[in-house]
Amino acid sequence: MSNQPPYPPQQPGRGNGQPPYGQPPFQPEPPKKRSVGKVVGLGCLGIIGLFVVIGIAVAAIGGGSKSDSGGSGNSKSAAPAGKSSDKAGAGTGKNDTTKDDTDAKVVFKVWGTAPAGALGGLDIGYGSDSDTRKGTFKDGRFEATLTLDKDAMYYHVNAQLQGSGDINCSVTADGKTKKGHASGGYNICNAQLSSNFTGGWS
């Protein structure tokens, strides 16, 4: 009897709450997730959805009433006043067209004295950021016109002397003009109008 231990051996994992030798400790049970987060999330999603539905309804109601009233107003006013508006447009058409043509054009000019050098005559380039062209200097002047593109970033004209001379250059768009000057040697006259954030030119 002396060979037996005084206490009987315990079974692993029973009664004492400790893991058997060589195994990882028991993990405590994770706390149960509360549904508060789900409720808040669904509530926010519901409010956003409500705003979207209201926005769509307002757009549909507001858009429909504008087009209905505008469409009926145009059809009623266009029929009886057709002849009188045509006559009024014909009388003022020339002045409007002239103003539109000047406002819708970009004018490039180079003038002065520029004798031909060893490389030939004055070297002229003009156009916009997406359309560059070559010009010809004749009888002391150069002038060209392009249609104004409101999407252009800039319009420019440059003229390089070929050894000597004295020239001026300008570019005009929407009533705004930028000028440049070059004198002697191989100097370059440069003028550029850039579009600004208000849709004008500076």
User: What is the 3D form?
Assistant: elongated
Oligomer: single chain
Please give the radius of gyration in angstroms: 42 Å
Helix content: 25-40%
Order of helices and strands: HEEEEEEEE
> What topology, given as strand order, has the largest sheet?
4-1-6-7
Distance between the termini: 112 Å
**Residue fraction in strands:** 25-35%
Mean of all residue-level pLDDT scores: 75
Q: How would you describe the overall organization of this protein?
A:
This protein is 34% helix and 31% strand. The strands form two sheets. It has a four-stranded antiparallel β-sheet with strand order 4-1-6-7. It is α+β, with helices and mostly antiparallel strands and 202 residues long. The longest helix has 68 residues. Strand 6 and strand 7 form a beta hairpin. About 19% of the residues have low confidence.
Question: What attributes characterize this protein structure?
Answer:
34% helix, four-stranded antiparallel β-sheet, 202 residues, alpha+beta, 31% strand
TL;DR of this structure?
It is built from one helix and eight strands, in the order αββββββββ.
List the helices and strands and how they pair.
Blueprint: H1 36-103, E1 105-113, E2 123-128, E3 131-135, E4 141-147, E5 154-160, E6 163-173, E7 176-185, E8 188-194
Antiparallel strand pairs: 1-4, 1-6, 2-3, 2-5, 5-8, 6-7
